[in-house]
Amino acid sequence: MSILIALGLVALAIATVGVSVAFRAVAGPRGSTLPAGESPSLAPRQAPAQGSSGAHVVVHLHAGAALAAQLREHANAAEARGLRPFFEFSARWCPPSRMFGELLDDPRMQAGLAGVYLIRAELDAFKDDPRTRELGTVAVPVFYELDANGQSTGRSITGAAWGADTAENMSATMAGFFAG
Questions:
Q1: Looking at residue 164, what DSSP letter applies?
Q2: Is 31-179 a CATH 3.40.50.2300 domain?
């Protein structure tokens, strides 16, 4: 009997993976994501054409290079693509940070990210970086609007702004923030 149950679970797992892969192949992501630490000039995947619905880019930074230099590089890349640069500090240990990352593929979040170049970094990886101290980060997740030089414009928002960690709350709050 236990062999039949095990075989049934294996078949279910294979079917689930097959459906997920098929959906990704048909639907594909609406935005572009650069691998962690990837330079925008070497990006293998491009964002949808400027002016297309939902065009955005999400990149993930790694420690090893100065945060200020990486923000400047990505802000310049955002400007070249006609996108608005924003920077997010998150943390793996923070439930709202994890939830935000998990919801990036949600259609509501995709709509809110239209026209945005989101630069994401783990706070713990940059805790000793001078730019982290300049930003005065005290909570995560925190999002900063950047100018074309990678400097904060002074506009920021934390995860506390959306209340409960739901797709509805996050997408509505962040769409408003990203829209200015």
A1: S
A2: no
pTM for the whole structure: 0.73
- Give the domain ranges of the chain: 1-29, 31-179
HEC-encoded secondary structure of 22-55: HHHHHHCCCCEEECCCCCHHHCCCCCCCCCCCCC
Cα–Cα distance for residue pair 34/45, rounded to 1 Å: 7
**CA torsion through residues 42, 46, 51, 56, sign:** negative
Rounded to an integer, what distance in angstroms lies between the CA atom of residue 106 and that of residue 112? 10
* 3-state SS class at 139: coil
Local confidence pLDDT in tens for the 180 residues of the chain: 444 444 444 443 433 333 332 322 223 333 444 444 444 433 323 334 333 446 999 999 989 999 999 999 999 999 999 999 999 999 999 999 999 999 999 999 999 999 999 999 999 999 999 999 999 998 999 999 999 999 999 999 999 999 999 999 999 999 999 999
CA angle 108, 125, 160 (to 5 degrees): 40
Tokens of 85: 């640069």
Burial class (CB in 10 A: 0-12, 13-18, 19+), 103: middle
Structure tokens at 179: 């829209």
